[in-house]
Amino acid sequence: MISAKDIYLSYDKDKFIIKKGNFHIHPKEFIFIGGPSGSGKSTLLKSLYGAIKLKHGNLTVDDISMEKISKQKLKMLRRDIGIIFQDYKLIDEWTIEENIMLPLKINGYSPEVSKQQANKLLKHVKLSHRIGKYPNELSGGEQQRVAVARALAHNPKIILADEPTGNLDDYSAEVVWNLLKGANEQLGITVVIVTHRVPKNLGIKYRQLSIGDGIVYEVS
Amino acid sequence: MKYLKNFIAFIILLSSMLLAFNLFMSINQSVSNYKDKIRDDYSIVIITKTPIVKDSISSLGNIDVKSIVTLNNQEILAKFKGKLSKNSLTLLKKRLPFFYKIYLEEFPTTSQLQAITKELESMKNIKRVESFSKNHTRVYLLLKLINIVVSVLFIIIFLFAIIMLSKQIKLWFYEHAKRLSIMQLHGASTLYAAMPIIKTAIWSSIFSFFIVLIILFLVQNNINIFLPLELSNVINIDLLHTSNLVLTFILSVLVAILTIIGVLIQHKRY
Asked: Residue B270 has what pLDDT?
């Protein structure tokens, strides 16, 4: 599903954030990428959805090579990915329902089907009583649940989450973990989560990668 | 509220640009129509000893010569037919000078006509110059002045509008940047992601055009308030000329498209 061989990532010419990164992620796996702040976790995740270009090496995501990926191919790849951000990245001027409908509309679903699916997901994330509200009318935890619902809406092959519980209280964090767990267990979605703190007693089989000094290694 | 503010700011900007453009076009056209109307209200006839090379006189008194037409002297000869012998007629034909009428590209003012007459009289081959003109000088000069003023005004408004437009592009960019990048992160095409901007821009151009249309309609129907009756009797200012309105609408859409392109280029750089 995701394979990295000797990848180098950097924002500057000389300073590499990831050096010789090697890892492999199988379909339906639940993966945590850990490491201290500034170690390059988010940068690595960005490379998986093409927000940062590779300097060297080979990286394939869903059998698509990320080196010199065309804009068209990148668009198609992103349509098969659900992304969750620490700062939610919801569109403020759209209702939460419209936000969830976004990936569905982009994937060509009709407005009726998109609306139905959005309502179903809002029920699933226990926010059906908030229909018609705008993101800034919701708490942080609720906004992140909307973001998770949006990431699940189009039944993606992969979910990439960048510190999804970083800004949340314990209760909201638990709700988000359960949603991601459910996506992996029930829908067979590959989940890759960047976090500096892996939750205890998650109750799911997972693998953990870590980054130190730009090297990606597996935590046993 | 912020969106509405930006939307209205863009409409005001675009409307003033379109209004200036339409006024510029209409005044230009009115002056041009007036020029056409008075073009034949003058006459310059020259009499020469020998035939002239028409290309040798290309401009007179700083006005380009449009054409030099040879006047037929057969009419003069016809008057003497029957009265004179054939030989005398042939001799007369040989002795008759050459008559030409000069047409200019622009209507000459009285002083210009005097200068032209003097210039022609100083030419060796020319025996006589006959010039005549109706006195349109005051109205014509006034129109020319209005034309210059409107042209300068149009350039100022146009430059001002371009500066404001680049500011508007930045405003729109900041307003839409977050949404554009979120949509693109989910695999949306640029066109799909930019659809809200495109819709806003197109609606703005349509709104602006109709605002300008209403203003022009009101001005046209109350032209006497803006122009003295004497002047409006002399020149016909048509603010609702179809071709001008079409051009105004095209300009409106063009500005909207340029704004969208500007926002997208800025987003790409960002």
From this structure: 64
Residue type at position A64: I
Tell me the per-residue pLDDT of B182-234, one tens digit each, with 9 for 90 and over. 999 999 988 888 888 888 888 999 999 999 999 999 988 888 777 777 666 76
Q: Pairing between strand A56-61 and A2-9? A: antiparallel
For testing contact with chain A, the best of B6, B174, B185, B186 (most A CBs within 10 A)? B186
Question: CB-based contact (8 Å) between B186 and chain A?
Answer: yes
Q: What is the 3-state secondary structure (H, E, C) of A126-184?
A: CCHHHCCCCHHHCCHHHHHHHHHHHHHCCCCCEEEEECCCCCCCHHHHHHHHHHHHHHH
Whether A21 and chain B come into contact, CB under 8 Å, resolves to no
Contact A38, A211 (CB under 8 A): no
Question: ipTM value of the model?
Answer: 0.89
> Which residues of chain B neighbour A92 with C-beta distances below 8 Å?
178
Average pLDDT over residues B142-160: 82
Q: For A69-123, how does the pLDDT look when each residue is reduced to its tens digit (9 = 90+)? A: 898 999 999 999 999 998 999 999 899 999 999 999 999 999 999 999 999 999 9
Residue A76 contacts B, CB cutoff 8 Å: yes
Domains of chain B in start order, with CATH, are 2-36+139-269 (no CATH), 42-133 (3.30.70)
Distance CA B7, CA A37 (A): 42
Closest residue, chain B, to A102 (C-alpha): B183
Domains with residue ranges and CATH for chain A:
2-219 (3.40.50.300)
Residue B99 phi, psi (nearest 5): -110, 135
Q: Which of A75, A90, A91 lies closest to B189 in CB terms? A: A75
